[in-house]
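Late entry, evening session. Most of the bench is empty. Finally got around to the prediction I had been postponing all week. Sequence below, unchanged from the version circulated by S.P.
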Amino acid sequence: MASLDTLPNIGAPATRALHNAGYTALRDLAGVRRSELAALHGVGPKALRILQEALTEHGLTLA
């Protein structure tokens, strides 16, 4: 199970984009709109899928 305290392995560009936007832990993404994350350079469909799957493990979701 993914930790809520870290981001899952989504690749360096997506991780950098999330960190630059202030998202440093999986818990920070709960309730964030998918479109907001998709607008970040480096965050693509695969990263969004991985993030959603990791959130789902904790009963959370993207908006």
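Two things to note before I forget:
The chain is about 40% helix and 0% strand.
The chain has a mean pLDDT of 96.
Will write this up properly tomorrow.
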